Amino acid sequence: MAPLLLVESLKARYGPVQVLHGIDLNVFDKEIVVVLGANGAGKTTTLRSISGMVETDGRIEINGQSIKKLDPSEIVRRGVAHVPQGRGTFPELTVEENLKVGAFIRSDNDINIDIEACYQNYPVLYERRTQTAGSLSGGEQQMLAVSRALMSRPQLLLMDEPSLGLAPQIVEDLFTRFVTINEEHGTTMLIVEQNAQLALDIANRAYVLESGEITIEGQASELANDDAIRQAYLGA
Amino acid sequence: MLDRLQRNGSPASERNYQIAKWICFTIFLLLIAFAYVDVGTISIGSNNYNLSLIRLNKAIAYTIAILGLQVVIGYTGQIALGQSFFFGTGAYVSAWLIADHSWPFLLTLLIVIPSCFLIGMILGLPALRIRGLYLALLTFGLAAVFPSIVKLDKLYGYTGGAGGKLTSNYKFLAPSWLPFDEVAQALQKLPLLGDFFGDGPLSTREESRLWKFILFSILAALCFWLVHNLIHSRPGRAMRAIRDNETSAAVSGVNLAITKTLSFGVASALGGVGGAIYVAEIGIASPDDFSSLVAIYLIVGLVVGGVGTLPGAVIGGLIYALVPDWASSTQSISFVPERWLQGPTGSLILGILLIVLTLFLPGGIVMGWRRLKAMIRNNKSHLAIKNLDKA
Amino acid sequence: MTLSVRRIWGLNMDLFLQRVFDAITNGSTYALIAVAMVLIFKATTLINFAQGEQAILGAFAVLQLWYWGIPMWGAVILGMLFSAALAAGLERVFIRKFDPADHLPLVIITLGLFLVINAVAAIVWRFDPQSFPELFPSGNAFTYNNVRLSWYSIFAFGSCVLVLIVFQTLLTRTKTGLAFRAVSSNLESSRLSGIKVGPTLQFGWALAAAAGTLGASIYAANPVLQIEPSMMLRALIFSVTAAALGGLDSLWGALIGGLTIGFVQSVVVQYIPFIPNEMSLSAAVVVLLIVLTLRPSGVLGTKAVERV
Q: Contact partners of B by the rule of 3+ C-beta pairs under 8 A?
């Protein structure tokens, strides 16, 4: 079976600094794949390469079609949504407007139905639908950012450290919800995380990224039991 | 530094080379001065272009003002657009002292420099809170109000109102020990080139003009030397740190308040000196010579010469002094309606220059020249390597 | 007590009222240019120094079209379209390639545009002031003693409010407007949501230029003014101050800022004995200085969060 996302010998640089040294990675339909790695390993750059925010060398394909050199706004139309790190919302816009922006590429009549669905998933967003996103708490903003991304009805959802800066309880809720979304809508997910414990719990497969190279890959359950991983990322 | 040493051998020979270079440059300047002391014109088609020392003296005034912009914009990264304000302040202070108190020109600088420095520092204070575009906005406003300030009735006694302040009572008499006549006549006797230097002894006016040019050049050289030393000193490094990243400069112990106000003060003082020279050259300080358009032209000079390069100020000053003047001297070009040429073509050309250089050559002419030199040098070294390979 | 009611606190109420009306008239035109600057600032955090010149070029185009026999309001609409198209082109060619966070090149480019547009206007239409046809019914809507409220004032203010309502509707009710606000709120997430940032900003430039042209046309249509290429220089300073007062990112702030500046110019300056008449420009700059120093985000603006 061909993967939904295929990344082959991906290289990226910021000015003189080479950040990715040739990454191979693939994500199959309906999978949850997690990329683990420390700060500066190149996790964010990997995601930004896929969504077209940085210039790269190598192959990036969605459903067998190359998306390299495409503008980010075009890549979204190919079914890739991206929740960037930390600030995935539009702080000056209301919650409802945020969701509408998420559906920007769509012109069908189901947008309001999807907004209702978001509100059902996260009732707190419904309560705050006329408030500006900037006035929400960190956890609520992350929910909104994910909902915003889902509004484009993506095949593949890229998430950049969704747990960053959130309280453990909220992170658990958030991740449980990811599984539900994955199961209900069949949304494929590629999550980069430092919080290995939770990420490995919900993921099917995992990669470990170190200094711009993939060093380990395998089934999430295997990695969770791997001694090296446990030492490096699980603090055990 | 290292590659410099390698290229030119020992530091001592590097120094001799520099000294020789500057001596050549000085002689070259003097030759130009003698050649153009009477009104020199170039004719292209039916248009005459003026090349007299008056233009060059104005260019020196602009150069010094642009040098000030180099300090505050080029080296400190503060977008301050109001240099015409200080250019005007210097001009008016100097004019007032000369006209009403009969001070000699050089002495007025002793008032112009500290007063512009102080005003610049005070007006720079808001820059501690106001940044980037807001600062650009405010300083542009400052430039816009200058003419209406000097036109105030209350200041009429000092500024002469809309009519301006005449300083023609002060004559720049060349000191008699300077052998201008002798040099001029010696130059006129040169074979082939003699014709360029006119004939007969110099008139008093010509001598005075020459003397001004030499005096202003020396002042400009002093300013350059001071600014050069400033940017390579500790406060200068602090300025560049602020330009590159204000936050990290503050974190690494740069005192933002002192450094920024110092930079504004120096820039304004230079603007003031430029203004004083301008007035000394044209003999009148009038309000509309210091409008916000002048502020923009000075920015053109800064950008076209090259932001953050000292020689860029000279090129900028020349362009400001010559381009609008020559553009208005151009009264006929084939295919262009004469009616158009009567409009502000100089402003148009300067605007186009500003845009084109920002788009295609962000370092200005100086950086372009350096890049060209580097390219030629690289080609040479490639050749050298190829030859080595063959051998 | 023979003291007239019209003299309260030593003020001549007639004169005072008249000046308030003047303030509203001037303030409305400043507000229109300020709105243009706000639109661009909102989206790109760029202050377009050429805004006033673009506006005057548009007003000259209106005048030219009128000379060619097009009815005045038709000429105004065509002129607005012309300057919108021109602004869209300028944005594409000169602005888009620059990093919006690096202010210096952008300031320089807009200063360059300032020089070029000003020169072109002066080359084509000359510096001589020309009278601009009237846009609104002439005469006074209302006269009481010596107080006159001209139709021009009413319509100038009305058009300003109308433009604001149209823009507000455009920005909050349409998809393009939503995209525009999204871009000004979070550039990266906008791109990741599929918004084409370039064309969206271009739309903002076009809209701004159209507003500016309307503003300049109304300004020039003032019966006491004539149109000439550098008339916008003063207005630019007033408008910028108005925009800054409103916080540079609020449409209605621009109106309130414009009216405030009009008030300062026509009322406050007249009643402070030591500020001469011609100092109204300086008064505006002083207001700008105070606002920027004490409340950099303006009176109605959103507080900007500095991100390091």
A: C
